[in-house]
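S1.2 Input.
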Amino acid sequence: MDKILLFIPMYNCEKQIIRVLGQLNNEVCSYLSEVLVINNRSTDNGEKVVENYLKKNKLGVKTTLLRNDENYGLGGSHKVAFDYAIKSDFDYVILLHGDDQGDISNILPYLKERTYEQYDCFLGARFMHGSQLKGYSGFRTFGNQVYNLLFSVGCGYRIYDLGSGLNMYRTAILKDGFYLKYKDNLIFNYCMVMGSAYYGHKVKFFPIVWREDDQVSNVKMVNQAITVLKLLASYMGGKKKFVQGEHRDKIIKAYTATTIYSC
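S1.3 Output.
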């Protein structure tokens, strides 16, 4: 059986994180070796909410709650989780956002069938046939589809989502740390897509259900749209230079975190 780590990043989502943990029933946990919740220095009460939940509701798998030693951003939290997975000899890492927009059950059929073993990156997609979007505007859907098309041309393979909250990676491709110089914010996922194209990773998308209820978005749409276009242009202008270059605004030598609770 593959050793699989489920990584749940959280930042100011105390209302939603309990619902995410509630998705982890016995069937889901039977395919996992450990659940890793990473608090990126939330300013709300989310960390205590998670700790209290875990004390009262023991999951069917080892669970660890970490707090980043600095606010590293979403991309930085990925780097903490990837490092944890590598050092602990996990075979795969699953990402599930802590804001309850995605549903872990969407990947369950592929865990049962072990479909993911054929790929290096097994990525949830909000904008492909079979997906469902709830509470997501038509304008945003259209915008994302345009960007998916542009990145498909730039990367040379069909892209259906540039960064959903449900993804799975083979740990072996992460060991060389190709992603460490990528942005530490939300742009990290875009960099990962382009990095996978350059390094020839085997990528597969699968449809997911995505919803927006009481979540708070950290994305400023216009600014991000411009940033993403510049990012793609930079990649197409020199792929090797892009994937090997430094993209971070702040250089961090080590992405570290402190264990808050484990059970």
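S1.4 Remarks. The CA atoms of residues 142 and 240 lie 30 Å apart.
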